[in-house]
Each structure stands twice: as structure tokens, then as C-alpha cells.
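Input record (Table S2, row 247):
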Amino acid sequence: MDYSVADNALKDKVILVTGAGAGIGKQAAISFAQHGATVILLGRTVKKLEQTYDEIEQAGYPQPAIIPLDMKGASKQNYLDMVDTIESQFGRLDGVLHNASILGVISPFDQIGEDSFDDVMQINVKAQFLLSQAVLPLLHKASDARMVFTSSTVGHVGRAFWGTYAMSKFATEGMMQVLADELSDTNIRVNAINPGGTRTGMRAKAFPAEDSDLLKTPLDIMPLYLYLMAPEGKAIHGQCIDAQPKK
Ligand SMILES: NC(=O)c1ccc[n+]([C@@H]2O[C@H](COP(=O)([O-])OP(=O)(O)OC[C@H]3O[C@@H](n4cnc5c(N)ncnc54)[C@H](OP(=O)(O)O)[C@@H]3O)[C@@H](O)[C@H]2O)c1
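Output record (NAP complex):
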């Protein structure tokens, strides 16, 4: 599939990226900005968000904004306040990339701790649910809006020891499908991406012994991210697409 988009495909769009301080989210923010978007960088570590901000600014792309938020503790009101800030500062929101996640603990099912389960479900699922509810009114006002979730290969088929993370990604795909079905007659297109093994901190934590040079980089998988945010991808709705499909 050819996922190419125009150089200015995201011109004048305002796009919120969660987990924009590292890994895939950082690269997505930079790539969206490179294609003309004003990106809102959400994450928990301000220093990392500032690095993303600086890279975007130094490249001469549209000036981004930073929203520091720890999704582990964020309440419904925090997300509603955030949306008010976005509306007052930018007057619009055209897209959301739900990217922030944690891996939790890779362990046998019977050893999954309740606290670890709660943390993964809070950050990977409930935070996305609350954020999605909060942004919907603004997305409805946009002429061509996007919501892109992030799944995983273990969100399609469960795998031993991937416990809560796998369950959270099944929930993510479920959330995407429910929303896509509800929003099918609207201006909002809803999809998910499974990045596949990608050279990031999370991947290194999950597979510490592998040779990371053999993995795709976040930049390598950007064409699909750009396509689903851009006008070129408008026909796609309710799908979870593998960024690295098996050949
Ligand atoms: N890399 C892969 O091979 C792979 C494969 C399949 C799916 N995925 C999915 O792709 C997405 C990105 O993964 P990645 O590999 O880029 O991971 P990563 O390098 O660990 O980056 C995750 C990002 O999420 C942020 N984050 C984590 N907890 C947060 C919280 N409580 N509040 C706000 N932000 C938080 C992190 O912020 P800090 O930097 O401040 O911690 C970081 O910016 C995830 O949804 C992941 O499940 C990745």
C-alpha cells in the first residue's frame, strides 16, 4: 500500500500527540509538524517534551505547544480543562494520536500484581477513554477530523506473559471499533495503528537482548501515521493497520 501524502498535507491542522517526548510519539509529532501541523505535545516528562519542542522549532516547522500531564493520575476534569485551553489557544482541534502507553511487567499471568494491572489499564485504556470523551466536541467542529489509536501485535492475538499490556491493547482496539461505528456518519475518522517492533525505549525494555539495529526506526513507520492523519487517508475508518505487515 502506498501511504505517501503531500508535503503540506497537514497544513493548518492542529494535532494532539500523547507521549510526544520519546519514541514513536516524538517522531510522529515532528513528522506531523514537518507536514504543516501545529502539534500539541502531551506527556509526563517536561524535559523530554521540551526536546521535541526544540527540534520542531529549530527545523522551522509551525510552533508547537506543550501540555505536561501524567495520564496515570489525570482526572476527567484535567482533560476537560485541557480541551478548554486548546480551544482558547488554537480555536480548533483536527486530530489526536493516542500513543502514550506503558508496558507494565512481562510476567506469568498468576504473578501480575494488582497495582501493575491498575497502572497499565489506567494509562493505556482509561486515560484514552477520558481524553477521547473530552476531545470529541472539538473534533466534531472540525471539517475533517482524525482519531488514531495505538495497538500492538498482542492486541490482535494474546500471547503468554504479555498479560495486562496485551489486554490493554485488545481494549484499545475495542474502543477504536466502538467509536468508529458510532462516528461512521460524521466528519471524524477513527483508526488504530500497530507499529510492529520499532526501535524505542519500550521495545528495548520488552526485548533487552535483541539487536536493535535490526529494527525499524520510528521514522521508518511514519508514512502510515501521516496517511491516517492526512486528507489522503480519509476513506479509511474503523481499521487497525499494521505499520509493518508480514510479507
Ligand atoms: N516500540 C514498539 O516496538 C511498539 C510495538 C507495538 C506497539 N507500540 C506502541 O506504540 C506506542 C509508543 O510506544 P514507544 O515504543 O514509542 O514507547 P516509549 O518509547 O516508551 O514512549 C512512550 C511515551 O509514552 C509516554 N507516557 C508513558 N506513560 C505516560 C503517562 N503516565 N502520562 C503521559 N505520558 C506517558 C512516555 O513518556 P515518558 O518518556 O515521560 O515516560 C513516552 O513519551 C505505545 O502505545 C506502544 O504500546 C510500540
